[in-house]
């Protein structure tokens, strides 16, 4: 039962998220042989103010 978590900035459309889930599921099925029905994809969205690189928040760039 593979579980994949994708963390990304908010702002994608439902269609983009749907396509992402489908493609991630396909990749897991192809590489692990797990049935698609057993693959769980979790999307965690965050605002750019909740992440920084090198001490600088993404929202401040």
In words, what does this structure look like?
By secondary structure, the protein is an alpha+beta fold. The chain has one helix at 14-32; strands spanning 3-9, 40-46, 52-53, 56-57. The protein has a two-stranded parallel sheet with strand order 1-2. A hairpin with a 2-residue loop joins β3 (52-53) and β4. The radius of gyration is 14 Å and the shape is elongated. The protein starts with a strand and ends with a strand. The mean pLDDT is 97.
How do the SSEs run, as a string of H and E?
EHEEE
Number of strands: 4
Radius of gyration: 14 Å
Number of helices: 1
**Oligomeric state as shown:** single chain
- Supply the helix-strand structural class: alpha+beta
Tell me, briefly, the overall form.
elongated
Helix content: 25-40%
The main pleated sheet reads as: 2 strands, parallel
What percent strand?
25-35%
Separation of termini?
39 Å
The largest sheet has its strands arranged as 1-2
Mean of pLDDT: 97
Give the key terms.
4 strands; 1 helix; two-stranded antiparallel ribbon; 30% strand; 61 residues; single chain
């Amino acid at each position: 039962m593979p579980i994949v978590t994708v963390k990304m900035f908010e702002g994608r459309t439902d269609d983009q998220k749907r396509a992402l889930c489908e493609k991630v599921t396909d990749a897991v099925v192809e590489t692990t042989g797990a049935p698609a029905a057993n693959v769980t994809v979790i999307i965690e969205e965050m605002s750019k103010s909740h992440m920084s690189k090198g001490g600088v928040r993404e929202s401040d760039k």
